[in-house]
Amino acid sequence: MEVHMKTMKSIIYEKYGGPEVLQLMQSPIPEPGSGELLIKVNSSSVTAADWHLRKADPFMVRIANGFFKPKQTVLGQEFAGEVVKVGAGVTNYSAGDKVFGSTGMKTGAYAEYITVDENSVLGRSPKGIDQELLATVPIGAMTAQFFLSQGNLKSGSSVLVNGASGSVGSYAVQIAKAAGAHVTGICSTSNVEWVKEIGADTVIDYKTTDFTRSNQQYDIIFDTVGNLSFRKVRDHLTDEGHFISTAFNIGLMFGMMGNALRKGKKVFTGITKETKESLEEVTDMIRKGVLRPVIDRSYSMEEIQEAHRYVESGRKKGNVLLTIHKEGSYERS
Fold first, then answer.
1. CB 197 within 8 A of CB 147
2. Of 15, 16, 38, 322, which has the maximum CB count within 10 A?
3. Quick one: fold of 7-137+294-323?
4. Which pLDDT tens digit goes with each residue over 3-20?
5. Residues in domain Enoyl reductase (ER) (predicted)?
């Protein structure tokens, strides 16, 4: 199987800034090296991580990705597509395989083709779901899975998910429910019903109710938004409860340091460990029908600036899909 074209469309940003720095341009189609796959990208996603990288916000982004201008000029950390060519030594995949996965900080999925190592965070696409939607699964689902595991999630746990209508939050609701937990979600008024539909037993509308004013306690409080603190929620944790948060900040780091000195209630924050094994666990949940992506909006490559503006506004629910290739839109032999 061989790609006949020599160039592809890529969304490139050569300087940090607003959505207007994202430009649709032609670039060479990469060649897979030893142990690599060339993948035709059918779809990617637009996430909060993408706009933070684009904007260099927070400032530490510049330390990792270039102080004055980005080293990695193509964003996109999630993809779904098809293997079109394999490099020397590849044993696990063949041309024609449908796959999905995460590029991690390598990024690059805002392009019609991408090369990835066959041992990277990559898996075969499960059947029974629209293949295009799989591009919105890896990061959100693996993040929810990783953090909930740090909270000692088990059957019978009572779990509160703050930000239940977001990408990580919507996956957290489903993963916790599949584990046999009693799940309470916090979201805005307009999202209450669909958060119930994806599995929440109870939903709190934060616009009308402040859960910290109640006497309810939870085994796990999972903050996917970053607007809670251990001090604020500790009275709402059970004796052995865990406060877990995706907000990686100084206060939470000090909270974790205190775990060794503190009996009972614990704090956890950190960076998600993305692995092939965790992606396979997520894939298995999709196969079983207990996990599905929630899609808010879908954009084309030509609409990337609009897509970034929308995601940066903080109004999205679930995930935003970026369509790259339509099925069968490339030549092969």
1. no
2. 322
3. Quinone Oxidoreductase; Chain A, domain 1 (3.90.180)
4. 667 899 999 999 999 999
5. 17-322
